[in-house]
Amino acid sequence: MSDSLLLVAMVAVPAVGAAVVAALPRERTALARQLALGVSLVVLVLAVLATLAFDPDGDRFQLTSSVPWIEGFGVDFALGVDGIALVMLLLVGVLVPVVVLASWEDQPPARRSMRTFFAWLLLLEACMVGVFAATDVFLFYVFFEAMLVPMYFIVGSYGGPRRQYAAVKFFLYSLVGGLVMLAAVIGLYVVSEAAGEGTFAFESLRQLDIDPAAQRLLFLGFFVAFAIKAPLVPLHTWLPDAGAEAPIGGSVLLVGVLDKVGTFGFLRYCLPLFPDASREFAPFVLVLAVAGILYAALLAMGQSDMKRLVSYTSIAHFGFIALGVFAFSTEAGTGAVLYMVNHGIATGLLFLVVGMLIARGGSRLVGDYGGVASAAPKLAGVFLVAGLASLALPGTNSFVSEFLVLIGSFPTRPVFTILATVGIILAAIYVLLLYQRTMHGPQRGVLFPAADEPAGDATAPSTGGHGATSSATATLTAPAPAPARATSRLRDLSRREMTVVAPLVALVIALGVYPQPLIRLIEPAVAATMSDVGADPAGTTATSEGTD
Amino acid sequence: MTIEAPDLSLAALAPLLLVFGAACIGVLVEAFGPRDRRHPVQVAVALVGTLGGLVATLLLAGTREVTAGGALAVDGAGLFLQATIAALGALSILLFAERNLDPARSAFVVSAAVPAGSVRDRELLTVQRVQTEVYPLATFAIGGMMLFVTANDLLVMFVALEVLSLPLYLISGLARRRRLLSQEAAVKYFLLGSFASAFFLYGVALVYGATGSVRLSAVRESVAGEGGGTLAVLGLALLIVGLLFKASVAPFHTWTPDVYQGAPTPVTAFMAACTKVAAFGAILRLLYVAFGTEEWTWRPLVYGVAIVSMVVGAVLGLTQTDLKRMLAYSSVAHAGFLLTGVLGYPGSGDPAGSGLPAVMFYLLAYGLTTLGAFAVLTLVRSGDGEATHLSQWAGLAQRSPITAAVMSLFLLALAGIPLTSGFTGKFAVFRAAIEDGAWPLALVALLASAVAAFFYLRVIVLMYFSEPAADGPTVGVPGMPTTVVLAVTAAATLVLGIVPGAVLGLADQAAIFVG
């Protein structure tokens, strides 16, 4: 086993960075954010180095390192990545600098400092790297739970008006899931103890032959935690609150990365460790997944708050990922992992753009905006790219993954796949409606206060009808050119904001056109996982119970 | 009939002798020392006694002997718990000695005998004289606790119970502020405590009647031989009730919130940390040594009581608006978690069970954390007294970021978040329970942890995410003693969470009962 310090450094660098940033004097916000950016870029470089050092056809886990941590419990501080974890690390590496840059000029709420925000952000990064890179189940659990604390403070200290409620709800949901998982983690240890030597090492646990009854219980323990995290439908209600109330950088990481730990966990822990139980519960999970796709899409259409809307679209997307994971085919699994990355990029971008719009208008309501495109074409352009990527238009990155999931699931789970396809149509509706209402049509709403002055010729009232707050007062005006006074509150994207979105836009298109390098990394790992689970769907029949 | 002098191993008794010796010297100082120099001398004597006891237990590590005519069992588990009590006791003494926080320079009333609210009382309220009787009293209590966990004989156990309880009853009533509340707490604790002692004594009598001996080893042989008659089981039940009362396990917890709230906060910290260790030490010894072969007699009882305690502690904790009461219910819930670990008993044949070391580690971790949490409570003051109402803590992070950060650390540890000592402890006891097949209990415990996490989080929410009230409390600048306590407990909470290996290993090695 070769010892590599690369992953250790990826955990240690942001952790140390967090401590340094936290120790800075309160007023040194500028230095704090520069440090945070520097540290997160170092992690990105390390992630790229790790990718270069990784051989997709080599061992399952590479770049491994392991030192005994708590000998009394048989716990090792063991890190290592397979292709799946590696792409997640890349995603973390890309998103954190982007988030730092996006939060560059945020004003902290009264009497709080951005220094602390950046410190929490870096600590969160350390935990996120750890959770994906851990190859010891106990270590994974520790990172899984520790991750809550920075996120809790990010939401609770820097979030929107209902941040207290959202932060506590987020924490408690995750904690309950985590504690149930803790029981399963201990259970796993006890099972391994009974089978010989007690261990938490993933590779040893994978080779255990656990009897079906125990598998069922342990599977459920892990599954509940991951289903809350991911989130699957009946357990999802914390996400719209947390996603909406978190500061925009927090939302990006929450939905873009943290929630992926759930789907990552399905793939890494539920399937290989409990293959029999996974097969047994698969129909049940698929029902939840498909129900999530449809239900969340319908709810997304009904949202008047843009951040809630984006959160609901994510729940729908997690349905697709879960479908890909539990379809038990390499193709669908690869699609699901690719989806995890792509969703992080696309939804991250969408959150960022929405955040930029909200920063300009000061309102989260869809109905408070209209006709932004004519005054801020760059913003609208990026919004469109993010939206199209979110609805998986061919040519954007999400298309590849969604297509792979559907094509991979169809042979094994035709009914569920067909139902899921309906979700694509719904996605088009909610994304395009959001885009059309806010970006097109007559200029109106909070960004165009002068638009209330009546104008002579009204254009066709094509969109604004559902606006929640201001549609009643917003009289229709000629779309362009807007009076100078009216546009005074609306700047187009600044250079910094362009720098924030540029890498993500580039990735949306690049991965849409040429996803091969990522697939190359992911596929062998997924294939190994699927062979663990004995990917043979013959025993189970797809029923049509997915209609609820 | 001649009475033979029992064999005494002075070395094995050294920790007890040091602590009791210090307590006796303290009494003499109180009687003969000049008043203006008493305080530093008393603090020094008490600290030398407790720290000396701590060092002595550490030097004795590895000893396994039954001494004093079979009345004391100095073994690994006993020494580990003695060391824990001595360390926590020394920290409590430091809290007692804090003179910077209260404007009148001490948390204790000058003269306990003066009626509360009388003219004399009002005069004394602002006098800067300090009361020094608390130090020998607390040292006696610490000595009693250390005797309690090594008692190998039910009668010695009873004597130790009284030695530790009586000083506690007294010092609970010595608060300088809100004296009536404090005195009420003392009376309540005394009355209910006497009942518990009576139960215990009756239990001793019944067990003696059934087995013909009060020696734990003899009791074990007797119940193993005869299968434990009704009388012995009844006696055991009464003994457990007495001990569960001291450990504040629901449904015998009703005194806990009132006493924790009314007693001076340093005393509350002392009780929450040390009494818990002592009571669980005795429970473990009684169950494992005397009734280890008759597991069926106590397992269902402990199982049920653990569930009740966890649920009561977690649920009632939710409704509290006073931090001291909240921490009291938290202590009830933690007693339940500890009992979960007590169930991880592998049976008399196999000494390698993980229940005993798990409970020992948990006691140490919990004691340090809860002591630290109460120490933080002494810092936050409004007017003359401590600000313990939840609403007063709103926005504390903006007044004093360090205080809030330290308190958050303790609360996260009590909630059992990874990388804190609380998590390591919980993991250890739950693993012991699950290994023993008690996974439904572990599941209940985990859910109770989640509920309890809510009220810990609520404090963090208040401190960090709420706006401070206009006339909020002030955060006092602690003097040397409290600073030391906070530094030690906070560091221990982190170290036992991040690198607990050494201490876990120690607990594992020490987990041996003789007798």
How many helices of chain A does DSSP assign? 22
Sheet bearing the most strands of chain A, described?
2 strands, antiparallel
What fraction, in percent, of the residue positions of chain A are helical? 55-70%
The strand count of chain B comes to 5
Physical arrangement of strands within the biggest beta sheet of chain B: 4-3-5
Protein structure class of chain A:
mainly alpha
Shape of chain A: globular
Order of SSEs of chain A, N→C?
HHEEHHHHHHHHHHHHHEHHHHEHHH
Strand order of the largest sheet of chain A: 1-2
Task: List low-confidence stretches of chain B.
Answer: none
- The structural class of chain B is mainly alpha
Number of domains of chain B: 1
Largest interface by Cβ-Cβ < 8 Å: A-B, 36 and 38 residues
**Residue share in β-strands of chain B:** under 5%
Helical coverage of chain B, percent range: over 70%
Order of helices and strands of chain B: HHEEHHHHHHHHHHHHEEHHHHEHH
Question: Averaged pLDDT of chain B, please?
Answer: 89
Entry summary:
Chain A: GO terms for molecular function: NADH dehydrogenase (ubiquinone) activity; NADH dehydrogenase activity; ubiquinone binding. Chain A is mostly helical and about 550 residues long.
Task: Please give a handful of descriptors for the protein shown.
heterodimer, A: mainly alpha, two-stranded antiparallel ribbon, two-stranded antiparallel sheet, disordered C terminus, B: 515 residues, mainly alpha, 5 strands, 71% helix, 3% strand
What does this protein structure show overall?
The complex is a heterodimer of chains A (548) and B (515). Chain A is mainly α. Helices cover 68% and strands 4% of the residues of chain A. Chain A has a two-stranded antiparallel ribbon. In chain A, strands 3-4 form a two-stranded antiparallel ribbon. By secondary structure, chain B is mainly α. Chain B has one domain. Helix content of chain B is 71%, strand content 3%. Chain B is built from 20 helices and 5 strands. In chain B, helix 3 packs antiparallel against helix 5 and helix 11 packs antiparallel against helix 14. The two termini of chain B are 27 Å apart. The model of chain B has no long low-confidence stretch (mean pLDDT 89). Chains A and B meet through strand 1, helix 5, helix 6 and helix 7 of A and helix 17, helix 18 and helix 20 of B. Chain A: GO terms for molecular function: NADH dehydrogenase (ubiquinone) activity; NADH dehydrogenase activity; ubiquinone binding.
